[in-house]
Amino acid sequence: MFDAAHCPAELQPLLEERWLRWCEAAGEELFGKVSAALGAADAQLAVARSFVGSDFFVQQCCRYPDLLPQLLQEDDLGLDADWMRTIDEEAELDRALRRLRNRVTAEVIWRDFAGQWGIPRVCLRLSELAETCAQAALDWHHRDLVARYGEPRDRAGNAQSMVVLGMGKLGARELNLSSDIDLIFAYPEPGECDGERGLENQKFFERLGQRLIKSLDAMTADGFVFRVDMRLRPYGDSGPLVSHFAAMEDYYQTQGREWERYAMVKARPVAGDTELGAELMEMLRPFTYRRYIDFSAIDALREMKGLIQRQVRARGLDDNIKLGRGGIREVEFIAQAFQLIRGGREPALRERNLLKLLPLLEEDGHLESGVAEVLAEAYVLLRRVEHALQAERDQQTQTLPAEALRREALAFALGRDNWEVLLGDLAEARQLIQREFDIVIAPPEEIAEPSAAEEWEGLWASCSNEDSREVNLLSLQRAGFEPAEEALQPIAELHDSTMVRALPNAARERLDQFMPLLLAAAAQEDQPLLAVQRVLPLVRAVLRRSAYLVLINENPPVLSQLLRLCSASPFIADQLARHPILLDELLDSRRLLAPSSAEDIADELRREMLRVDPDDLEAQMEALRHFKQGQALRIAAQEVTGALPLMKVSDSLTWLAEAILQQSLLLAWQQVVEKYGEPAGASADDMRFAIIAYGKLGGLELGHGSDLDIVFVHDADPQGVTGGERAIDNLSFYTRLAQRLIHILQTRTLSGPLYEVDTRLRPSGNSGLLVTSLTSFDKYQRESAWTWEHQALVRARPVAGSGRLSADFEQLRLDLLCSQRDEQKLQEEVVAMRDKMRAHLDKSNKDSFDLKQGSGGIVDIEFMVQYAALAWAHKAPSIVRYTDNIRILESLDEAGLMSAHQAGHLIDAYKAYRSEGHRLALQQLPGVVDGDQYKAERKTVSTNWQQLFG
């Protein structure tokens, strides 16, 4: 029977819980086998350490209950994968690879914690696992592709095969439990396959490489085999997935960078044709190892060391046993320095494995006597701790835990009495490594305490340097950029972009000053990654107009405001990226966040238009667009900062649209009058023409990006003509006026359109006249209009044009809405229309709710309001005095036609829906929410619907 007393008291509940999990999964027969094997104390201790130290190990033992008795009974479960050659299906191959990986990983955790295998053997087994899996997958997919396309051959007819180079720890056979594997793919020569389809070798091997990566890297129900990283290949992510030998040789001879030399030190063929692999390595050797003693490498290593020290200080990496001072990386640097400097003249130093290399360095006098042994012991301890950290959850980490229980579990799994003992051993090892590191790579002058931006200068300068990748990722992670890879990638892409490389010196200096400021400021935001992701498109947009970067560099509050607004809303970020001129709006935060009245907006627009040449239509149209974009940015900023509540946001957007409509109408009037003259009895003060707003504009509920539903009416003499030299009849004049207005509003200039316009609510819709006389409008509404058109009239109001005609329209609207109707027939038609809309437009399903069209949503409230207005306005005209739903509901309450309780609940629901709709619009998301949201509001609306319509 298992005795939990083998571990400290505070860890016994954890051990017992994990042991019970295995017992439940194992069953009586396997439990009996294990119990028999647990007679020896060392076996019980091995189980205790493995179960406490690794939840991943426990999961695998539960998933495959016969694994634990095998580990107890055998010294080595082996690594036989030859049987994979008989697999027929790709899915079966992928499943077999993952199960092998999980079994081998579990075994090395057991052997390590049980003290049966040392770190060299553990790393070797993991490296052999990677090679075995890569070779098995490569062989399988090569056979499968040959069956499809034929054998790839060179021009002389020789069969070709792919060579897989393992880089980094795989190349050195030092693989971690949770390491990525860095690979490079190559093949000998161009040519084509000998099948009927004549596929080029390049295409064949690209497909082979893609399939190999998928078999190893893809996450399935069985997990993954190894995460594959291909960024060390020539040209990185932008380069071909696989290159032929001559192309690789040319790349490294002409374009290979210093950090690629460091990477190539550990490169080794790990799969594919071994003879071809050896040939390729010999071809690349002159790039990695110089024929002379290369002291220039020491400067590059020193620069990297300075970067790491800055990052350790700035980001607090002391608990990282790989990247912190005295960590694994510094031992690797010690060995690497001698390899790069002397490896060209001393072939023995080309040994990839660090533990084998250290004694060679001491033998040749590069390290003092005895140093190799103590460095190796310190390195092995750090690697054991690294493995134990990763064994806990099969995650790639090198950071010591902060939680007390995890610390004690780690110490126990590694055979220490407690955490303090392990911590003392680590401190001693790291101090020794740090001392030797500083001897080999002389420390640079002490780095002054960096400013917030200076902390990020190193990251920006090295963001595309592969050797600095891990340090940079940790810096970003420590600063809250999660996941750090998603932050580093776009920064590196910007840094290496063609556009940046082509910048003039002055513009590049401005960018180099700006990026650290941006990263430092983003790190202070609640969501640093989101902030950077949303601002980078703006950065790209202004690269060739770097004066904008000067504006931000010299005005720190602008950068802070920019990040805050872009973090809050992708709509704002998108507007700024499209129209960088709007950055000027951020200069004065008081003005930016101060709400404006309708009169303020109209007056400001009039003043703006006075500054534009009245004869330059293009400039006038651009001025309108700049004004609209600036005001819309202000309103959005006021909304996300809470300076404007929901109702006022819609008011402000509506007032903005009204002001622009009025100014656009004036421009259109001037142009059409100049061409045709004025209709008799009309003037700029009374055009005898009005714009009638419907929908959201009519109901003062405009949102960000809303279309304008408008209808045009006139009351000029239908038999009259204009007074210009090119006189036309009045109807043609007003039609052209409306067309010119729509052109001004919808034309996509460099700054985009002003608004999208919808005129389909006019009498007879698209088949009707674009402009209708007020008399014809009256006649149509009384004799031909559908019920839904009367519903739309509830939200109609004049917004621009003749004041006199607008007043006449308002009186006509009131008369039409106050006409008595057959309530039963009205009710049936309203419900039928609502059912039809829901069937075609509702995006709700069992898991989501469409705020607008869903049952119990916005349109249900609108239809109830419209029904009430049409049914009861004849006895209470006050209920149609306003066009917005909330004031109509309040009016229904005041008129005694709806209880205060009922009206209040509908108003609350309507506000909640619209508030969420505005929030989603600013996030550029559809108006659909989780089905669990707004259940109370939906129930209230649906209950009221049933009460009203049955």
TrEMBL record:
Domain Glutamate-ammonia ligase adenylyltransferase repeated: 53-280, 560-811
Protein's recorded name: Bifunctional glutamine synthetase adenylyltransferase/adenylyl-removing enzyme
Keyword Magnesium: yes
Protein EC: 2.7.7.89, 2.7.7.42
Region (Adenylyl transferase): 452-950
Entry similarity comment: Belongs to the GlnE family.
UniProt-listed HAMAP family: GlnE
Primary role: Involved in the regulation of glutamine synthetase GlnA, a key enzyme in the process to assimilate ammonia. When cellular nitrogen levels are high, the C-terminal adenylyl transferase (AT) inactivates GlnA by covalent transfer of an adenylyl group from ATP to specific tyrosine residue of GlnA, thus reducing its activity. Conversely, when nitrogen levels are low, the N-terminal adenylyl removase (AR) activates GlnA by removing the adenylyl group by phosphorolysis, increasing its activity.
Reactions accelerated catalytically: [glutamine synthetase]-O(4)-(5'-adenylyl)-L-tyrosine + phosphate = [glutamine synthetase]-L-tyrosine + ADP; [glutamine synthetase]-L-tyrosine + ATP = [glutamine synthetase]-O(4)-(5'-adenylyl)-L-tyrosine + diphosphate
An example Gene Ontology biological process: regulation of glutamine family amino acid metabolic process
GO cellular component: cytosol
SUPFAM superfamilies: Nucleotidyltransferase (SSF81301), Nucleotidyltransferase substrate binding subunit/domain (SSF81593)
GO function terms (MF aspect): [glutamate-ammonia-ligase] adenylyltransferase activity; [glutamine synthetase]-adenylyl-L-tyrosine phosphorylase activity; ATP binding; ligase activity; magnesium ion binding
A Pfam family annotated for this UniProt entry: GlnD_UR_UTase
Ranges for domain PII-uridylyltransferase/Glutamine-synthetase adenylyltransferase: 302-440, 833-923
UniProt keyword Ligase, yes or no: yes
InterPro entries: GlnE, GlnE_rpt_dom, NT_sf, PII_UdlTrfase/GS_AdlTrfase
UniProt keyword terms in alphabetical order: ATP-binding, Ligase, Magnesium, Multifunctional enzyme, Nucleotide-binding, Nucleotidyltransferase, Transferase
Record organism: Microbulbifer aggregans
Cofactor field: Mg(2+)
Region described as Adenylyl removase: spans on this chain: 1-445
EC category: transferase
